[in-house]
Every structure is written in C-alpha cells, then in structure tokens.
Design brief:
Elements lengths: L1 E9 L2 H31 L22 H6 L1 H7 L8 H19 L21 E4 L7 E2 L2 E4 L3 E6 L9 E10 L2 E9 L15 E6 L3 E5 L4 E3 L3 H18 L5 H35 L2 E5 L3 H4 L5 H7 L1 H15 L2 E5 L23 E3 L6 E3 H11 L5 H14 L1
Helix pairs in contact: 1-4, 5-6, 6-9
Length: 397
C-alpha cells in the first residue's frame, strides 16, 4: 500500500537560495531535454498522404528516449560543472518527467487518452524536484538530511506510521513556503472487512444546496470557501492588475494572491478530510454517485462545482476507506433525483423544485433525500455486498 505525507520545511536564507538555484538549473535541463524531443519529432516525421515535389530530406537521427538522455547526464556535468552540485537521482527524475510528458503526448495514457503538446516551463511553473530514494533514518531531531543538499528543519506535525518506509521525497515551492512530500510504502495489503453491518451502509447525494444528503436524511451544509473569499481575492487581484509587469510591487502582489488562494484550498481540503473521517467512523460502506465532474464544470454552475470539490472529496474518501478496510462504491447517477425511491415511478422535476411528491405511492420527502435512497438501492448488485449477503444467509440457515 502506498500513501503520502506532506510536511512544511523551514530552510534558512542560504538554503532558500540553494533551492532556487537547483530549481532554476533543473528547469533549464527540463526545457533542453524537451526541445531535444521536439527537434527529433519535427525532423523525423512526414505526412503519409502527401510529399512536396522539392524537399530536403534531413539526416535521420535516433529517437531520444529515457536511456539515451539519462546516459548523457555525465557529459552534462563535464560541460557544465555547476550541475555536479545536484544529486544524480534528482537529475534522473527530470529525464523521467520529460519521458512521461512526451509519451502521453504521442501515445496517450493507459486508457489511450492523449494529452496536449507539452509546454516549456517558466520559472514560476517549475517548482518541484524529487529524490527517488531516501535513507530510512533521513529524519531525526526535526531535521531531514537531503543528499548533496544538507540538513533542513522540518515541522513534524505527525509521525510517520509504523510499518511504512520512505520511498521518495519531493521538495515543492508553494505560495507560503517549501514543503517535503514523502511517498510511503507498507507491503501489507489492507483487506476489506469480511462482514458488514447492515445498519452501517449509507448512500450520499452530492449537491450544491447541501454538500451532501445521506439516505438517513442528514444534510451536511456546503461551506463555499471560494465564494466567501471572493471579496478579499478581488482586492488582491486588483493590486496585481494595477502593478507594472516585472516590478517588485507586482511580484509581492502575486505572492500575496497565491497565499490567499492557498488558504481557500487548504480550508476546502480540511473540510473534505474531516467530512470523510466522520462518514467512515459511522459507516462501513459509503455509496455515492459516479459523477462526470469534468462535464459539469463546463456548465453555468462551474464556479459552484469547483468550489464544492466533489472529485477531491471522493478521492480522499476512497483512499481513507481503502486504508481502513472499508468500502466506497460509485453508482450510475442517471435519474436518481427523478425516480421515486419507494415505488420506482419517474417523477419529473426541474432543478429549482426541491421536494419529491409521488402521486403513485404518496411518497413525499426532500428531493436530495430521495436521491440518496436511490443511490443506496443501486448498490445492491455490488459483488462484495452480494457475497456478504450470501454469507449472512448461510450463517442463519
């Protein structure tokens, strides 16, 4: 099992200068390797169905790949000795990042979905470098020992759990400082509980009026962190717009704006974690709608959808459930608000109609509560729940 923990760093002034130098050099190397890939791509391709009458055929060169670009790193340190100050694993990780980016552009990911043309990174866009290996005792006395960098103060607000080993360490520059993100591994695999309590299965309907309403009728209010911070963000954004580009005043305003946006993000993420913890403490199985958030974010409700952060919440909920041996199930969201949860009859409702009244069976309840019950009912065919039901019946008999 893999998980990640993030801690804030407290580097001194000299270490901050060194961090910025490393990021600048790594960004230059990233852009150089990416341009090398583009040069090969442009000079070694031609259209299949067309060829100009007069053309110059260049000398074809081998495709630069991960191994060839990695093998060129020793020569880089000879030509540019200042790169020798950077740890070799950090430089190798830059090559790996270029490889992944370019492969997704040409071939796509595991699902065959291609990404857009990779872009060259500016100084503000390249903010992370990674050590692919770390010693088990790299953290001691609130300091972390980074190879070829030195010891940096770290705020250990929580201890690394027993049984987990540090696999990688990524240093990231954010609006309010520098952070270290550890990728942790525990070879033991958590197993799903062999028996679920029938009273501890709940369905949740995600919404914009309430963050979610569960099948028991409990509604969790939506905090709307971004909308509440808009007034302050507007003032700071004006300061950025009025300042001259490239001036110190503008740079300070940009940093201040970044901090304000990070506050909103941190508040939203804290709410997601606390809400997920509350759900998993009270229930063994959580059933939710498998929403297409990407499509919803292109509608007129885009700001509210992004402010709610449904995808982030479901991701956090799923990860926490997996670590605890619990179960999170996604079901088809089609017509959950229109179908009656008692008789199954379709009761058409517009978006502003917030109450469900079924003339067929007389069911009358809140629209979101009705949808949550439908979501819970649609999970009955899940293989794990079927197996659990079979085990329960066999014990009774």
């Amino acid at each position: 099992m893999r998980t990640s923990y993030q801690y804030k760093l407290r580097p001194n002034k000299q270490q901050i200068i060194q961090l910025e130098q490393w990021l600048s050099m790594l960004r230059s190397q990233y852009n150089y390797l990416l341009s090398d890939r583009f040069n090969w791509y442009e000079f070694n391709r031609c259209s299949v169905n067309a060829c100009p009458l007069v053309c110059h055929i260049p000398i074809l060169r081998d495709n630069p790949n991960y191994h060839t670009q990695q093998n060129a790193l020793p020569q880089l340190k000879k030509d540019r000795p200042w790169y020798a100050a950077i740890h070799s694993q950090v430089l190798q990780n830059v090559v790996k990042r270029v490889e992944l980016t370019f492969e997704r552009f040409l071939k796509g990911d595991s699902n065959g979905k291609r990404s857009g043309r990779p872009r060259f990174k500016s100084s503000s866009q390249y903010s992370t470098f990674t050590y692919s290996q770390m010693k088990p005792d790299c953290i001691s006395n609130n300091t972390i020992a980074l190879p070829k960098f030195g010891k940096v103060k770290i705020i250990l607000h929580r201890q690394i759990p027993d049984g987990f080993k540090i696999k990688t360490c990524s240093l990231t520059r954010k609006a309010d400082g520098y952070y270290a993100t550890f990728s942790l591994e525990d070879k033991t695999v958590p197993t799903i509980k062999p028996n679920f309590n029938a009273d501890k299965i709940v369905g949740i309907d995600l919404g914009l009026k309430e963050f979610f309403t569960d099948s028991n009728g409990l509604a969790v209010p939506i905090p709307q962190h971004y909308r509440n911070a808009q007034k302050r963000l507007k003032v700071v954004q004006k300061n950025v717009s009025r300042a001259k580009k490239g001036s110190n005043r503008r740079n300070k305003a940009v940093k201040k704006l970044g901090k304000q946006h990070k506050k909103v993000t941190d508040k939203r993420r804290d709410f997601h974690f606390k809400t997920a913890n509350t759900l998993l403490k009270n229930f063994d199985v959580v059933v939710h709608e498998d929403l297409n958030v990407k499509s919803l974010s292109r509608t007129r409700l885009a700001k509210s959808v992004h402010d709610a952060g449904w995808s982030s919440f479901i991701s956090i909920l799923s990860n926490k459930a997996e670590n605890a041996g619990l179960l999170v199930i996604g079901v088809n969201p089609y017509s959950t608000s229109q179908d009656c949860s008692k008789c199954g009859e379709k009761v058409s409702k517009k978006l502003h109609e917030r109450w469900h009244d079924c003339k067929n069976c007389g069911c009358s309840l809140d629209r979101d509560h009705n949808a949550a019950i439908n979501i819970l009912n649609r999970a009955e065919g899940h293989p794990v729940l079927k197996a659990q039901r079979f085990l329960s019946n066999s014990r009774i008999s």
